[in-house]
């Protein structure tokens, strides 16, 4: 092995641990050694669902998946915003195959109805689902609840996506599909919550709620849930991964974190750079070492930082059981 080949993993890890890799420098440097781009047309004839596709990273994913030839199901909660995305992408890429999908990911009844509808359409055509990217995200100022009474970031980041994954498993299996949870590097700041009180962020009372903490907690939950799914489905047709995008310039960052945006603005990567790994995970279906399923810039990354300890398997099971109960689904023993 040439000496620079041995140094590249070290440099990559330094970029990761120092957080410099989260900025636009991450993809700019790493693309010199990261795995090859998916072949043009590699997703032709395949279907991919992107949630939260009306803004930022999700919108960038629509363009990237369409340019690989996929039929992209553009899922949002606002029909006007979806129509705008469809018009913009078609203006730039007239051959793009796009399907409008309206669903509020935080409303479990809406998710159930939408999944049944999509499954019926796919079953009628015999098509499968090659990709399901759980990208929809929110950061809220106050504790609010979903129509089913769940804390809202939990509902949007964890419960809705979990239910979607359960209900679309047959269609995902038919296409050798990949499920990708778009988490956040912010998840490193939170351990997994495992009691109903803390999962639903009722601890501390209304005054104790911090949107940024709720965000970090539920982003940690996404990584743990994706790992649990991966264990459950190991060796089967469907892969389940999680990733984080680094720091990307999107309306979500500008609106939710204006101070961060002001300081970091020039260093933020563009939305396409933030979306890259999720698109690559679906298109390339890379092999991991069997234990790491949390990715960033086309490489597996640790799920703990510095002195953090890995989550206890029994506690993770408590969390998964709560998610299964809240979504009315059954998690195998
Ligand atoms: N940008 C970054 O640097 C960064 C860093 C770490 C993680 N992330 C993660 O990446 C994902 C995308 O972030 P972004 O920066 O692109 O944010 P964004 O610009 O705010 O986009 C978020 C998208 O999610 C949609 N959404 C929110 N709640 C929804 C619901 N209940 N049902 C359906 N769609 C819903 C939004 O739709 P509306 O337009 O209708 O609100 C919007 O399309 C998020 O999961 C975020 O946590 C981003």
UniProtKB/TrEMBL annotation:
Top-level lineage group: Bacteria
Extent of the signal sequence: none
Annotated Gene3D superfamilies: NAD(P)-binding Rossmann-like Domain
InterPro entries reported for this sequence: NAD(P)-bd_dom_sf (IPR036291), SDR_fam (IPR002347), SDR_member_12 (IPR052992)
Name this polypeptide is given: Dehydrogenase
């Amino acid at each position: 092995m040439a000496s620079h080949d041995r140094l590249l993993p070290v440099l990559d890890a330094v970029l990761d641990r120092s957080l410099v890799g989260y900025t636009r420098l991450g993809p700019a440097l790493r693309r010199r050694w990261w795995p090859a781009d998916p072949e043009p047309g590699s997703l032709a004839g395949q279907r991919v669902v992107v949630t939260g596709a009306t803004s930022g990273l999700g919108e960038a994913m629509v363009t990237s998946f369409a340019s690989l030839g996929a039929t992209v199901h553009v899922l949002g909660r606002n029909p006007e915003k979806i129509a705008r995305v469809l018009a913009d992408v078609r203006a730039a890429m007239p051959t793009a195959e796009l399907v409008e999908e309206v669903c509020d990911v935080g409303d479990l009844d809406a998710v159930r109805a939408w999944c049944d509808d999509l499954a019926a359409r796919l079953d009628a055509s015999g098509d499968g689902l090659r990709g399901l990217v759980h990208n929809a995200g929110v950061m809220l100022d106050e504790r609010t609840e979903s129509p089913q009474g769940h804390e809202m970031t939990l509902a949007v980041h964890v419960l809705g996506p979990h239910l979607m994954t359960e209900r679309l498993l047959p269609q995902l299996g038919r296409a050798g599909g990949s499920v990708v949870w778009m988490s956040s590097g912010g998840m490193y700041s939170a351990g997994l919550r495992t009691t109903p009180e803390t999962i639903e962020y009722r601890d501390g009372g209304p005054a104790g709620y911090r949107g940024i903490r709720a965000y970090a907690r539920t982003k940690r939950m996404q990584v743990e849930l994706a790992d649990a799914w991966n264990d459950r489905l190991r060796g089967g047709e469907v892969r389940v991964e999680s990733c984080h995008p680094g720091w990307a310039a999107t309306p979500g960052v500008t609106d939710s974190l204006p101070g961060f945006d002001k300081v970091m603005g020039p260093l933020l990567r563009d939305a396409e750079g933030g979306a890259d790994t999720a698109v690559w995970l679906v298109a390339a279906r890379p092999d991991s070492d069997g234990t790491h399923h949390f990715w960033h810039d086309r490489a597996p990354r640790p799920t703990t930082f510095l002195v953090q300890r890995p989550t206890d398997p029994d506690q993770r099971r408590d969390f998964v059981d709560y998610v299964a109960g809240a979504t009315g689904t059954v998690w195998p023993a």
